[in-house]
Amino acid sequence: MNERIKIAIQKSGRLTEHSITLLQKCGLVISHTKDQLIGYGENMPFDIMFVRDDDIPGLIQENLCEIGLVGANVAIEKKLSYEADQSSCEFTLMSPLDFGHCKLSFAYPDSSIIRSIKDLEGKTIATSYPFTVRNYFTENKINANVTEFSGAVELAPSLGKADAICDLVSTGNTLRAHNLELGETIMESVATVLKSNAKQSQFKNMWIDKIIERINGVLQVNESKYIMMHAPKNAINEITNLLPGTESPTVIPLDGIEGTVAVHVVCKETVFWETLEDLKEVGASSILVVPVEKMLM
Ligand code: PRT
Ligand code: ZN
After folding, report:
1. Which residues pair with 261 in a beta bridge?
2. Which of 103, 198, 212, 238 has its CA 20 to 30 Å from the CA of residue 265?
3. Which residue out of 12, 70, 98, 102 has the highest number of ligand 1 atoms within 8 Å of its CB and is therefore the one to mutate?
4. What is the DSSP letter of 33?
5. 225-271, pLDDT tens digit by residue?
6. DSSP three-state, residue 178
7. Considering just the CA atoms, what is the radius of gyration of the chain in Å?
8. Region of residue 279 (phi > 0: left; psi between -120 and 50: alpha; otherwise: beta)
C-alpha cells in the first residue's frame, strides 16, 4: 500500500525548471524546499530525487529510480558505456520532451588545418562523451584518439591537449568565443523520459503508465489548438486538409443558414497565420483559435 515511485530529475541546471514544470502540468503537487534532495508527491505516489544529470541513467540502471528525465545525450552515452562493459542496459528511452534541445558536434580550431571529420585520422579529440564519439568513429571507419574531458572541453585545443573537440552546442557562442569552428553533428539531442526495464509491481506499473501517458498528453497540448469557424458545408474536406494533425471535425448545423455549418476541430500542430488565411480562402469565416488546457487520448 505504501509503495512509492521515484522520479530522478536534474538538481540544478538547464533541465531543472522544465522538468519540475512538466511534472506539475501532469498534476503532481510536489512539496520540496530548495536544499532538500528529495521532493514528496503530495497527491500521487511519486518521490522526486534531485540529482546530477549524469547520475540519472545509473539510478535507473540500478532500479533505484523507476523514471528519469535527462538529455538523450547523457542517456545514450551511458547506454553505450554499459554495452562496452558487456552489461545490458536496464532502461528505455521513451518520450522525447520539448526542452533541452542541443546537438553534439565536432569543432575545429580556427588556426588548424582540420576542416572536416576526414581530417581527423590519427588526431586527438577531447569530449565529455567518449563512448558516443568512439562509436561514431567506428561507424565511420575513422582512426582517431578520443580523450575524455569532464568539463571546459572547449579549452582542450588551446591547452595543447587535443586537436579538435566534440561537445554540446546550442547557440554556438561558446565555440566562437574560443576560436572554434562548428563541424559535423553526431547527434541532435533533447531531454527524454527514461523508464526502468525492471519488473515492477502492478501498482507501480499502473502509476508509471499513468505519468507517462500524462507527459505525452502535456506534450500534445503544448502544440494543440482548438479551432472553431463557420464554413460552407462542401468545404469540410479542404478545411481538414489545411489543418495538419486533425481528426474528424465536429460539424454543427447553423440555425437558419442553409449550406453553412460550424466546424470545431483539434489541431495537434502549430497553427500559423498563413493557415488561417488559407482557411478564409476556402470560405471559412469567424475563425477562432483557442489553446487546449488538457488532453487525454
Ligand atoms: O550539475 P549537472 O551535472 O547536473 O549539470 P551539467 O552542467 O552537466 O548540465 P547542464 O545543466 O549544463 O546541461 C544539462 C543538459 O542540458 C545537457 O545534458 C543537455 O542535454 C542539455 N543542454 C542543452 C545543454 C546545452 N543545451 C548546452 N548548450 N548542455 C550543455 N550546454 C553547454 C555546452 O556543453 C557548452 O559548454 O553550453 C555550452 C554551449 O552553449 P552555446 O549556447 O554557447 O552553444
Ligand atoms: Zn552533468
Report:
1. 231, 253
2. 212
3. 102
4. -
5. 899 999 999 999 999 999 876 778 999 999 888 899 999 999 887 78
6. coil
7. 24
8. alpha
Q: How many A from CA of 168 to the centre of ligand 1?
A: 7
d(CA 125, CA 147): 6
Give residue 1's pLDDT: 56
pLDDT at 64 over 60: yes
* 133: Cβ contacts below 8 Å, ≥ 6 apart: 125, 127, 146, 166, 186
Query: CATH classification of 225-291 is 1.20.120.340, yes or no?
Result: no
CB 116 within 8 A of CB 132: no
- Which pLDDT value is given to residue 124? 98
Which position has the grid cell 500524462? 214
**CA 210 / ligand 2 centre spacing (Å):** 28
**The two domains 5-99+191-221 and 225-291 share their CATH topology (first three levels equal):** no
H/E stretch holding 260 reads strand 260-267
Cα of 37 from ligand 2 centre, angstroms: 16
**How many Å apart are CA 255 and CA 253, to the nearest integer?**
6
pLDDT > 70? residue 112: yes
129 closest CA partner among 107, 156, 108, 149 = 149
Give domain 5-99+191-221's CATH number out of 3.40.190.10, 1.10.10.1100, 3.40.50.740, 3.30.70.360. 3.40.190.10
Nearest listed ligand to the Cα of residue 16: 1
Question: In whole numbers, what is the pLDDT of the chain averaged over residues?
Answer: 94
| 153, 154, 170: residue to mutate for ligand 1 pocket, most atoms within 8 A of CB | 170
Which pLDDT score, from 0 to 100, does residue 175 have? 97
Identify the CA nearest to 48 among candidates 34, 61, 67: 67
Q: Counting every residue, how long is the chain? A: 297
The residue nearest atom 19 of ligand 1, judged by CA position, is: 71
